[in-house]
């Protein structure tokens, strides 16, 4: 997450949407007063600035807009335009599964991914509920006129954000996983339809399709 009062935006980072690449691109042009939250190099160097902060929720790279209330005055936060990347949910689930399988930290989702094949992982009740209860819009709830950037449409969807910034962005390629690029081969009819149900809000909001852009 990045809060930039000087440039008028707050970048909100939903997991497995290409957000680390966006954070790196933004921190390369960060202002001295930008608040960087996460594990990118400049965010780690500025971590001391967050010491003692009292916020409404957890302060980490995947914080929601509501989580960071208290970090800056309410009127300052209200003036920032939320920006976030979104991704085809069928593709995102494949990416999430493969990322989890190579992690070593202690978390139930890591254990689940390492223990199950992909079909069972998608149907797992806890995994399903984690996606169902956190549609993309929930990350920026309460924000002013959010800018949503589809990962598959960077060439067009970045335009409103770069207009706000006043400069172009080039996102690096980072955090790639060892997986087939075409997500469709990972699904059968049951898991395809199950994901369509648990991610119905995101699919409707951003016109995603199972047979969408690769």
Q: List the quaternary state of the chains.
A: single chain
Strand order of the largest sheet: 3-1-2-4-5
**Stretches with pLDDT under 50, minimum 5 residues:** none
Content of β-strand: 5-15%
Tell me the number of helical segments per DSSP (H or I, 4 or more residues long).
12
Keywords:
214 residues, alpha/beta, 12 helices
Give a description of the structure.
With 214 residues, this protein is of the alpha/beta class. Helices cover 40% and strands 8% of the residues. It has helices spanning 19-27, 41-45, 74-79, 89-101, 108-115, 118-123, 125-132, 136-139, 154-157, 159-165, 189-198, 200-205, and strands at residues 2-4, 9-11, 35-36, 81-86, 147-150. It has a 5-stranded mixed β-sheet with strand order 3-1-2-4-5. α4 packs across α5. The two termini are 27 Å apart. The mean pLDDT is 96.
Q: Short summary of the structure?
A:
The chain is 40% helix and 8% strand.
Structural topology:
Blueprint: E1 2-4, E2 9-11, H1 19-27, E3 35-36, H2 41-45, H3 74-79, E4 81-86, H4 89-101, H5 108-115, H6 118-123, H7 125-132, H8 136-139, E5 147-150, H9 154-157, H10 159-165, H11 189-198, H12 200-205
Parallel strand pairs: 2-4, 4-5
Antiparallel strand pairs: 1-2, 1-3
């Amino acid at each position: 997450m990045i809060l930039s009062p000087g440039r008028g935006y707050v970048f909100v980072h939903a997991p497995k949407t290409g957000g680390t690449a966006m954070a790196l691109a933004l921190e390369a042009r960060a202002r001295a007063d930008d608040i960087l939250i996460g594990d990118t190099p400049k965010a780690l160097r500025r971590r001391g600035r967050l010491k003692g902060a009292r916020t409404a929720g957890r302060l980490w790279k995947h914080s929601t807009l509501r989580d960071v209330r208290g970090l800056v005055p309410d009127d300052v936060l209200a003036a920032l335009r939320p920006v976030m990347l979104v991704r085809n949910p069928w593709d995102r689930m494949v990416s999430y599964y493969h990322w989890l399988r190579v992690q070593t930290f202690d978390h139930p989702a890591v254990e689940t991914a390492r223990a199950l094949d992909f079909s069972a992982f998608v149907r797992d009740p806890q995994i399903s509920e984690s996606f169902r209860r956190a549609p993309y819009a929930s990350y920026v709830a309460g924000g002013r006129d959010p800018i949503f950037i589809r990962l598959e449409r960077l060439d067009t969807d970045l335009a409103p954000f770069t207009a706000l910034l006043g400069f172009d962005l080039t996102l690096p390629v980072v955090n790639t996983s060892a997986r087939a690029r075409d997500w469709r081969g990972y699904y059968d009819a049951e898991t395809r339809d199950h994901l369509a149900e648990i991610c119905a809000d995101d699919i409707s909001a951003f016109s995603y399709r199972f047979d969408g852009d690769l």
